[in-house]
Amino acid sequence: MPGALIVIPARMASTRLPRKPLADLCGAPMIVQVWRRAMEALIGPVLVAADCQEIVDAIAAEGGEAVLTDPDLPSGSDRIFAALQAYDPQKNYQTIVNVQGDLPTIDAASVRAALDPLEDPAVDIATLAARIRRTEERDDPNVVKAVGSPLGPDRLRALYFTRATAPWGEGDLFHHIGLYAYRRAALEKFVALPPSPLEKREKLEQLRALEAGMRIDVQIVDSVPLGVDTPHDLARAREILAATPEFQRKPK
Description:
Elements: E1 4-10, E2 24-25, E3 28-29, H1 30-40, E4 46-50, H2 53-61, E5 65-68, H3 76-87, E6 95-98, H4 108-113, E7 125-131, E8 145-152, E9 155-162, E10 174-183, H5 184-192, H6 197-202, H7 206-211, E11 216-221, H8 231-242
Parallel strand pairs: 1-4, 1-6, 4-5, 7-11
Antiparallel strand pairs: 2-3, 6-10, 7-10, 8-9, 9-11
């Protein structure tokens, strides 16, 4: 799809892993590793939405683009929208892909897959999920489940997202992956909405869109990237990147 822009929100404040975006990950700051994965997707420019100058400088040193945003913005969605307004006031980009800044093992194919549901003009927002294969994840509240109506073997129309084990009964459960592709108009609408009741209860921002009647489709991918939230996660990410030769290449 033409006109796609990837935006990576990054903020320094993290209680479980201080200065997380600049944590060393196989010789580069983590935010640089995420930027590299996004560049490898080859779907359009990649912009980092930073909350401090240190992150901007780290990306600039790699040859990438970053903009400084208000550190007091309440969410990643607000941060990517602020960066979008600063970077593209002419509205040249109508598809915005939000890649979280703590997913250094996201693969390029998954980033590209997030665009597929937007081929349907009725879809406002697209996101990703993978089938849960580990039994312990089914009941883990830290594993967000995507619940939806099947539209094919690898696509759902989202009905709900929850930390509970859902849906009940026999069948697949889907681990939601926090990567989103927005139509620009949908992103503008979303950030203008107040937090919704279910969003506040489940602590899941995407429920705001569903409660407002926006359509989210879920593309099913093969695996869940590692999200880095703790020192243990960081150590695991270092192991994965060190063992994956394609992650060692710098984008051209």
